[in-house]
Fold:
Amino acid sequence: MANATELLNPSTPLAFFPPALADQFERSRYLFAVTLGAYVWDIGLNLGTDYALLFKHRVRFPTIVYFLSRAFTLAYILACFVYAVAPVKNCTALALGYSICSVLSQTATAMLLFLRVIAVWHESKIAFAVFSLLWIGVLGAGITIPLGIRGAHIGPTAQCINTAVPDYTQVAVIMPLINDTAIFLAITYRILAHTIADSPVTRLRVFFGGTGPGLSALSQALLQSGQHFYFVAVATHITLLVLLKLPQLTPIYHGMFAIPALALINAMACLVFRKIRFGLINSDGISKAPMTLSQDFQAAENPRSLCLHSCPTAPTTAGFGFNTAYPLDVRVQKDINKSSQEIFTLTALA
Structure:
C-alpha cells in the first residue's frame, strides 16, 4: 500500500493500492453487488412459495433447514458486500461474522442434500453412516474459514480488506465438493439401477455417456429428479476450486468468486427442495408415479406412510388422508389410485 502522506486524497481507499490491484478490488465489489441483487431477486421471485411453505403447511425439520439455509446465505452475501463497500469500525469482527455465516450456510445447504440422499437410500444403514460423516466433514472444513481469515482497515480509511487467508481454508471448498459429488453420484446410481434393468456393466456404460437400452428413460429420470440442478452445484464447486488453484490469479480474485459460488449452490439446492415440495419433480429420485400438490405435501410430513416397492393392500386416497382440494389434474388423481402399489418411499425433505 502507498504511504498516506504521499497521496492527494488519503480518504479514498483505492488510492492506497497500485492501479492493477485497485482495479481488481473494484471489480470484486461490483461482483458482490451483482450477487446480492441476484440472490434478493431470487428470494423475491419465490416469496409466494415460501409463504405457502411457512404458513399454509405444517413446518417440519426439512422446511426449517430450508429457511435457515436461505437466511444464512443472504446474511453471508450481505455481510461480504458491507465488508467491501461500507465503512466499518472493526474489520476483524465483521470478517469473523461473515465467515461464520458462510459456515452456517454451507452446512444448512449440505443438510438439504443429506436429507434427500438419505430418503433415497433410506434402507441402507451404510449410506446413512457415510453421508452423516460427510456432512460432519463439511461442518468441520467450514470452521477453518473463521479460524483463518483476518481483516484490517485500508490505510487510515474505515474500509476493510482481508489481510490473512491461509491456504488450509481451501478445505472448506474441497470438502463440500466431495460431499456434493458423492450425493450426486449416489442418487444418480439409484436412478440408474431402477431405470435400466440390465447388467451393472451396462449401467456404468450408460452413466458415463455410453449407449444403452435405457438411455432415454435414464435421461428423463435424471431431469425428473432434479439431478441436473445438483450437477450445476457440483460443477460450481469444481470451477471454484480450479480458480483457487490458478497461480496467475491474485488473492482478491481467489476470494471474490467464493461469494457467487456459494449463492448459486444454495439456490440450486433450494430450487430442488421447492420443486419436490410442490410436486414438480420426483421426490425420491426413483418413483414415476404422478402426484398432486396436496399429496406431495402430505407425503413430506409423513414419508414412512408410503411403502418402498409394493404395499400389502392398495391404499386409497382417503386411506392416506390426502386432501384433494388442490389437484393438479383430475387424470393424475385417477392414475394415482391405479398405481399406488408402485409408489416408492418419498424423501423426508419432499
Summary: Strands lie at 150-153, 160-164. Residues 289-350 have pLDDT under 50 and may be disordered. The CA atoms of residues 219 and 297 lie 26 Å apart.
